[in-house]
Design brief:
By secondary structure, this protein is an alpha+beta fold. The protein has a single domain, classed as Hotdog Thioesterase (Thiol Ester Dehydrase, Chain A), CATH 3.10.129. About 15% of the residues lie in helices and about 40% in strands.
């Protein structure tokens, strides 16, 4: 297993607080996949407005967290070091559950296709083994 702590993640992807949505990478294979985690705290800035009476992590941020896991897989390849992975599209996205304070979100993105600077990742976010978001993410390396 290839583990990455937050400092090592920041050496691979350009995201920073408050938009860095990964706490650690449990395992990854450059160009193949990454499995990371986001430990959701009540102190997250978005909970102040989403929603004060029933805090829920915005679904689009869960999709972004999945994209960041995929970016670790792609940008850890030697030929992509120092580059940025941009969204090219999101297909078949399904929200199947809520992410709330106290959740530990498992973020798994597998790279299923890559041709030149374009690629596609199959992404699944889960909490306690239950899928909360799934999507096909298209990226472009810049």
């Amino acid at each position: 297993m290839n583990h990455l702590d937050i400092k090592q993640i920041k050496e691979i992807i350009p995201h920073r607080h408050p938009f860095l949505l990964l706490d650690y990478i449990e395992d990854y294979e450059p160009g193949q996949y990454a499995v990371g985690y986001k430990c959701v705290s009540y102190r997250e800035e978005f909970f102040a407005g989403h929603f004060p009476e029933e805090p829920v992590m915005p679904g689009v941020l869960t999709v972004e967290a999945l994209a960041q896991a995929g970016a670790v897989a792609i940008l850890s390849m030697e030929e992509n070091r120092g580059k940025t992975a941009y969204f090219g599209g999101i297909k078949n996205c399904r929200f199947r559950g809520k992410v709330v304070p106290g959740d530990k979100v498992r973020l798994e993105t597998k790279i299923i296709k890559q041709k030149g600077p374009l690629g596609i990742g199959e992404a699944v976010a889960s909490v306690d083994g239950k899928v909360v978001v799934s999507a096909e993410l298209t990226f472009m390396i810049g």
